[in-house]
Amino acid sequence: MKSTAYRVVRRTQTSSSLFPLFPNTLRYVYGKLVQYDGFERFEWKHSYSRVYEPQGKYSPEGIFMSFEHYNVEFRDRVKCISGIEGVPLSTQWGPQGYFYPIQIAQYGLSHYSKYLVDEKRTVSVLEDAESRDTARWTVLDPMDSQVDNVWDADAGSRVISFNSLDSSSGVNLPVGSKLFFLSLDLRFISNASITVVLEAKGKQPQLFFVHYVCSNTLISADGNEVFYGIGDQRSHWQTLSRDLSTDLHKGLALNRGRSKKSRPSLMRVVSLSLSGRGRVDNITVSSNSHLPQFHAAADWLVRHQDSRGGWPIHVERVLANGRLQLPPGWYSGMAQGQAMSLLVRAYSHTRNQGYLNAALRATALFDVASGNGGVLAKFADNYPWYEEYPTTPSCFVLNGFIYALIGLYDLQHTVTDDRGADASRLYASGMRSLKAMLPLFDTGSGSIYDLRHFTLGVAPNLARWDYHTTHINQLLLLATIDSDPLLSETASRWAGYMKGHRAPHN
Amino acid sequence: MKSTAYRVVRRTQTSSSLFPLFPNTLRYVYGKLVQYDGFERFEWKHSYSRVYEPQGKYSPEGIFMSFEHYNVEFRDRVKCISGIEGVPLSTQWGPQGYFYPIQIAQYGLSHYSKYLVDEKRTVSVLEDAESRDTARWTVLDPMDSQVDNVWDADAGSRVISFNSLDSSSGVNLPVGSKLFFLSLDLRFISNASITVVLEAKGKQPQLFFVHYVCSNTLISADGNEVFYGIGDQRSHWQTLSRDLSTDLHKGLALNRGRSKKSRPSLMRVVSLSLSGRGRVDNITVSSNSHLPQFHAAADWLVRHQDSRGGWPIHVERVLANGRLQLPPGWYSGMAQGQAMSLLVRAYSHTRNQGYLNAALRATALFDVASGNGGVLAKFADNYPWYEEYPTTPSCFVLNGFIYALIGLYDLQHTVTDDRGADASRLYASGMRSLKAMLPLFDTGSGSIYDLRHFTLGVAPNLARWDYHTTHINQLLLLATIDSDPLLSETASRWAGYMKGHRAPHN
C-alpha cells in the first residue's frame, strides 16, 4: 500500500535546530535531561510557562503561539490516547475520563506546530510487503497460525495477511528498534489484535506488552500488560498510529500511580505480533510523528460537532468553591476558538472544505448568551466576552477569551468572503472588549486569571506564573497582528513583573 | 462681654483618656515624643495611615471617620491659616496658595471630631474687663498711648479700650503662659494691630513676634517677625482665634523652609500688645480650641458656595503625567461631599438652616456629567461615579468617591423630608456602583488608587499605604451603616494585606 501523503512527507527531514524560536530575552531554559525509552531527552516540564517572543507576524497557517513546546499527552491529567478516537481523554474534572475539546484541539495544535518546526525524525520501515515474501515473520505453531504476502485489491498493493486460530500464539515480526512511534495500516477480518513487546532497563531487563484489541474498552492494565481497545469497526483499511511509550506509561500509571519511579526506562521495541485474522501493511517505527495526531484531533472535531456548531463538554465544572457551576453539556468559548484554530490549519493543510465548514459553524454560539447555553457574557452590560466557562454570573477568564479571539482571527483571516462576516464581526467586538478590559487584569505585580472578584465580590483570583506567561505569550501574539500599543506595552510590563518590576504607587 | 456659647462650653472639661478610639487590633502606635511649645507632645505624623476600627455605628452628628487624629494645618502643603477667612490655604498644586474646599472641609471636620473627643483643655483668662480697671496693662509712653476700661453698648459689657498714636509703642499686656491658643474679641476703630511676643528655647532664649495687622496681605515674615493680615473690615465686634504656634511656624517656614530644624521650641507667650485705636475683650489663651476652627470652615463654605451649589477650585490640576487635566474652576465630587459632611454637622450643632440649605444645594453637580462641568462619571457607560477629579476621560479615584458617598449619606440621613430626595437617590445609586466596582481596586496584595489604568490603558496606579488605610477606614465606616458583607469582608481582607496576607493564586 502506498503510504498516505502526510505520513511520508517529512520522512527524511532532519535538523539539528531543535529550538529555533528561543527569544533573545530568554536567558535560562528550565527542565532536565532524563534517560528513558533508550534516548536522552530534555523534559520540557515548564516549557509552557516561558515567555516566547514571536519571531514574526502570526499566521493562521503557522505555528500556534508557542505550542511547539507543549506536550499535551505527557500531562498527568491525560488518561490516555483513545485507541478508537486517536485523541486524548482528560481526567481533569472527572476521574472517569472524558473527551475535552480544548485538550483535543491543543493536542492537534501542538503536533501541527511541532510538525512545522524542523524536528529530527528517524523512520524505520519494518514491512511494506513489496518484497513479495514473508521472510521477516515467524510463526510459532504452523498448525494454528499462518502468514502470507498477498495482493489486496482495496489497498491497491501487496500486503501481509495473517490468520491465527489461537490468540495466544499468532504471527510474529521481530523489531529490535529504539524507535517508539508505531504506524501501520490494518484491516481486521475477524476479532484480531496486535501485541507490541517492549524491553525496559532494570536490574534485569524487563518485558512489557501493549495490546491493541478489538473492543470498545478504553484502556486496562494487568501487571506488565496494557490493553487498548481499538474498536470493533476495523473491517476497512485504516491506519493505526501509536506512541508506544505514551501508551505503555499511561497503562502502567493506571495501577502504579503517576510517580516518576513507576516509569520504566524503555530500551527497545522487541517485536510485534498479530493474532486473529486480518491484513496489515506499511509497518514502521519512527522517533516521532506529528501529522497523524494533528489529523486525529481535527477529524474528531468534525465528527463530534453538534447541531449548534459546538462541542458540548460532558462533565460538570465547578469553580470558585462551588459558587459557580456548569452542569454537563456546557460549551466553552475557548473550545470553540481553539477548534477554529485547529480546523483552519487542517483546511489550509488539506484544502478539505469540511474542516472549514466546521470552523464556520463554530461561531454561532458566540452570539448566544451564557444563560441560554451559549458562551456570550457581557461585562458591565457593555463589553461582550466569550467565556471559557460560561457561568452565571460570568467569570471572564482572560486566557480562554484570548484563545477564542485567536480562533476568530484565524477564521476571519482565512475566509475572506461573506461566509467570514460573523467571525470578522465577533473578532472586532471581542478585541474592543479586550482592549478596554485588559488593564483590569493588571495587579501591578502580576495578572489576574479571571474577573470572578468583580462578579462574586471576593478576593481576586491571581494568575500563577504559568498562566501569567500564557497571558504574555497571547498578548505578544496579538501584538503582531494589531498595532495598538496597549497590547505590546501590557505584554512588556507583565514580562517585567516576572523579573521583579512593579507598577508605581502614588 | 459674654463669651459666645461655643467658646465656653468645654472650658473646664478635662480627660486623661486621650486615645479612646484605639482598636484592639492596633498593636503599635507610630510617632514620637517631641518637646516644643513648652509641652511634651506625641506627634501623630502617621496617624492618618492607621486602621481605626469603628466603635459603633457611624453618625452624621458624630466624629468623622478617624479625623480626630488629623492635623490639617500641620501639613507642609498648608501655607497658613488665613487671618481674614480663618481657614487654611493650600499650596499643594499651586505655590501661590489657594483656598481648597476639600482641605477646608477636612480642617473643619477634624476640629469638630477633636472637639467631640474628650481632649484635655486648659484655659487662662487674661482679661475680661469685669474688674473695671486696667491694672494688668502697661503703657510705655503715656503721651502717645492710653488704655481704659469702658462700657461698650454694642458688646453689652465692659471692655478694654486702647489708643496708641505710635504704632511701635502701644499698650501692653504681660502674659507669661505656656498656652498657645489665643482668642479675643475685638473692634478696631482705626488702623490697629495686635502683636504677640513669644519666647523660644535656644542657646540663648529667643523672642519672636507675631503681628495681626489691618491689611489684606495673607502672610509675610522678616527675621523673627511674622505678619498676618486680618483685613480692614474690623469695625464691628468680631472674635479672632489664632493658633500662635501654627501662625509662627508657618511664617518662619516662608523664609527658612520647612525643615524641622527651623521650628523653634516655644517656651511661653511673653506678652500681647495693641497699637492704633480699638477695643478688645475676653482675651484668653488655652491649650487648644476646636469649635472656632470648625465654624470658620463651615462659614467659609456658606460664604463661598456659587450659584451651581459648588465650590470651584481655582487652580489647574494635572494628573497621569499630563494625560489628564482640569483647568482652573473645576468642581470636585469629594469637595462637595466633604462640605456636606461638615455643613450637616454645623447644622446639627447650631440648628442654623443656612448650613443645611448649603448642603442641599451641593448635590446638584452630582447629576451633571464631568464633560459638562459637573462631577458625574460613568464606568463602562453603566455605573455612576462621583469624581474627585472630574477629568475626561474619567479617573475614578476610590477614596474621593467614598468621601462623596459619606457626604450624601450624612445629608440624606439628616434631612428626612422631600428635600433630601436627591441626596437619597444619589447615595443609593452611588453605593450600587461602589459595591459593583470595589473588587476592581483589589490587587490581591493592596489596593489601587483609581482606575486610570482602565481609561488610559496604563499600569495601575497603586495606592500607597496611607491611601490604602484610608480605603480601609472608609469601608469600615460604611460597614457600620450598610450590612452588605462585601464592605466588611473587603475591609478585613485589605487590612490583612498590611500584615503580609495575599489573595490566593490559582
UniProtKB/TrEMBL annotation, chains A, B:
Q: In which pathway does it act?
A: Glycan metabolism; heparan sulfate biosynthesis; Glycan metabolism; heparin biosynthesis
Question: Where is the protein found, in the record's own terms?
Answer: Endomembrane system; Membrane
Known catalysed reaction(s)? Answer: [heparosan-N-sulfate](n) = [heparan-N-sulfate](n)
Subcellular location, principal: membrane
Protein keywords: Isomerase, Membrane, Signal-anchor, Transmembrane, Transmembrane helix
Q: What is its EC number?
A: 5.1.3.17
- The answer to whether keyword Nucleotidyltransferase applies is no
Protein name as annotated: heparosan-N-sulfate-glucuronate 5-epimerase
**Organism this protein belongs to:** Capitella teleta (Polychaete worm)
Source organism phylogeny? Eukaryota, Metazoa, Spiralia, Lophotrochozoa, Annelida
